């Protein structure tokens, strides 16, 4: 048994060594140039797709092996991918992982450990942004580190919850609370899992440990029957990748800054922003769909069975593609986009602010946290400020239509519904593009120039609605006393 175990360890280490050598020797500069992409972007894409052969190796040789072998495999492959993309700067993630383990061990299940984790991990990430950020989108070590930061903060909170009386926890907290004491190898495997290290998704330590223990399968005792679901997400990801590759040379945020754009008719400027705002999100959609396929293939995507007994593979879904493409509301896009990160913020931040007693304030602080988590550029703050404003106005408008007999009757006219849908989608994606302009242009001089060229349309439109809708509501929604008399 000992010799067999040593052989398994040797096989994992040998694979990691070969993998590291291959990745180092692979020259991508010419290929990246021919595709019109940066070498860093091409490395990132290849690293994401590399998850599939690694997942197949895991399924074939490691699925029901000893836990420490699986942790070693995840750690070595994740570190190899980190080295391939960022070289020796992988020490940033390694340092934070080791220090996080020490925080858990030395401070235990205390609020001090949670606060120390939050302050240290966020401070390290923000310092990384400060020293590496430029005026452009750069693929640097901070990109996967923002994913790691949320993982480690969530780990500390779940470890803290694991020391509480189970009855004092909500059902959700009970699900994620860590009862045992994670080892350094477990924390490392959880942090460097190749299917989520670079771009997510987020998942809990408990879910990861179920994967290691062979519990995430639709066929107990056997490798999960997840190849077809994984290939479906991969195919969808490839579809978006091809679309983005074909369109990216022709629809760019750089054009928003040109004199040609500024000289267009106002309506054409708005239409370009609308189309660009929809298209620019496809690069994120591509990455998340491909990585979701990797997670499904390993079994990490297993999410129990539905009411018909069919296995669900959406535990690591970061996109609801149909909802994203068809829903005409901003809240629909939010619910369909970057799902696991939004769920993380809701679970570990928004709900933990319940003591404030104000939902709107908690939501505002959560969006502020998200903006800082993305980076220090002013564009992030403006983007999430717009999201906050738009969601508030959209909820007010929906409530007004529902409560007003006149507007409710108009909205229910069947023949006009396609027209309503078209108007909603136009407003939706125009102002989604408006918000994404600040997100993608980063610095105030750039996004301010574009906003000025369309007369700050988004801010004017939604701030006007924010202050006028309450008066419209008074005029169009009968008071309860009047309704009672009418009855």
Are there runs of 5+ residues with pLDDT below 50, and where?
Answer: none
Q: Let me know the average pLDDT.
A: 91
Spatial gap, N to C terminus: 81 Å
Strand content: under 5%
Number of strands: 0
The radius of gyration is 24 Å
Give a short account of the largest sheet.
Answer: none
Percent of residues in helical segments? Answer: over 70%
Structural class: mainly alpha
**SSE series:** HHHHHHHHHHHHHHHHHHHHHHHHH
The tally of helices reads 25
| Shape field | globular
Question: How is this fold's topology laid out?
Answer:
Blueprint (H helix, E strand, L loop, with lengths): L1 H24 L3 H7 L3 H11 L1 H11 L5 H20 L4 H17 L3 H22 L9 H20 L9 H6 L7 H9 L12 H8 L14 H21 L11 H5 L2 H14 L2 H17 L22 H6 L3 H7 L2 H12 L8 H16 L3 H26 L1 H7 L5 H25 L2 H10 L3 H20 L3 H7 L1
Helix pairs in contact: 1-5, 4-15, 5-10, 6-7, 6-8, 6-10, 7-8, 12-15, 14-22, 18-19, 19-20, 20-21, 20-22, 20-24, 22-23
Summarize the structure.
With 487 residues, this protein is mainly α.
Please, could you describe this protein's structure?
With 487 residues, the protein is mostly helical. 71% of the residues lie in helices and 0% in strands. It contains 25 helices and no strands. Helix 6 (91-107) runs parallel beside helix 8 (142-161). The longest helix has 26 residues, at 378-403. The protein is globular.
């Amino acid at each position: 048994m000992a010799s067999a175990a040593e052989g398994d360890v040797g096989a994992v280490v040998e694979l990691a060594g070969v993998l590291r050598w291959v990745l180092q020797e692979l020259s991508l500069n010419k290929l990246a140039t021919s595709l019109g992409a940066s070498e860093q972007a091409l490395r990132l894409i290849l690293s994401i797709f590399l998850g599939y052969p690694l997942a197949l190796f895991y399924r074939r040789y490691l699925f029901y092996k000893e836990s420490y072998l699986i942790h070693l495999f995840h750690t070595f492959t994740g570190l190899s991918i980190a080295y391939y993309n960022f070289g020796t700067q992988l020490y940033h993630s390694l340092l934070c992982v080791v220090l996080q383990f020490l925080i858990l061990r030395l401070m235990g299940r205390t609020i001090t450990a949670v606060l120390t984790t939050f302050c240290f991990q966020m401070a390290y990430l923000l310092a990384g942004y400060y020293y590496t950020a430029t005026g452009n989108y750069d693929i640097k070590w901070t990109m996967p580190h923002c994913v790691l930061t949320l993982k480690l903060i969530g780990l500390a909170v779940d470890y803290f919850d694991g020391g509480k009386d189970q009855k004092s926890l909500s059902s959700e907290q009970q699900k994620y609370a860590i009862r045992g004491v994670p080892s350094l190898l477990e924390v490392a495997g959880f942090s460097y899992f190749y299917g989520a290290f670079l771009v997510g998704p987020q998942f809990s330590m408990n879910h990861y440990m179920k994967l290691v223990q062979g519990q995430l399968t639709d066929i107990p005792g056997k490798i999960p029957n997840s190849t077809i679901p994984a290939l479906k997400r991969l195919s969808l990801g490839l579809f978006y990748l091809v679309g983005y590759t074909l369109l990216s040379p022709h629809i760019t945020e750089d054009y928003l800054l040109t004199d040609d754009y500024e000289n267009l008719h106002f309506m054409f400027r708005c239409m370009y922003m609308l189309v660009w705002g929809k298209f620019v999100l496809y690069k994120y959609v591509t990455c998340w769909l491909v990585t979701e396929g990797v997670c499904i293939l390993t079994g990490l995507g297993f999410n129990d069975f539905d009411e018909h007994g069919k296995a669900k593979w959406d535990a690591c879904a970061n996109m609801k593609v149909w909802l994203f493409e068809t829903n005409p509301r901003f809240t629909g896009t939010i619910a369909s986009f970057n799902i696991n990160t939004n769920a993380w913020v809701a679970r570990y931040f928004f709900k933990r602010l319940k003591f404030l007693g104000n939902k709107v304030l908690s939501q505002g602080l959560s969006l502020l946290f998200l903006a800082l988590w993305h980076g220090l550029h002013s564009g992030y703050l403006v983007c999430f400020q717009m999201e906050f404003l738009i969601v508030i106005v959209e909820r007010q408008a929906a409530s007004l239509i529902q409560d007003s007999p006149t507007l409710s009757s108009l909205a229910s006219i069947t023949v006009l519904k396609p027209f309503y849908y078209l108007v909603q989608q136009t407003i939706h994606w125009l102002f989604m593009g408006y918000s994404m302009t600040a997100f993608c242009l980063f610095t105030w001089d750039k996004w301010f120039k574009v906003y000025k060229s369309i007369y700050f349309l988004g801010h004017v439109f939604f701030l006007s609605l924010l202050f006028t809708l309450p008066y419209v509501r008074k005029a169009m929604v009968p008071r309860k006393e009047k309704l009672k008399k009418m009855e």
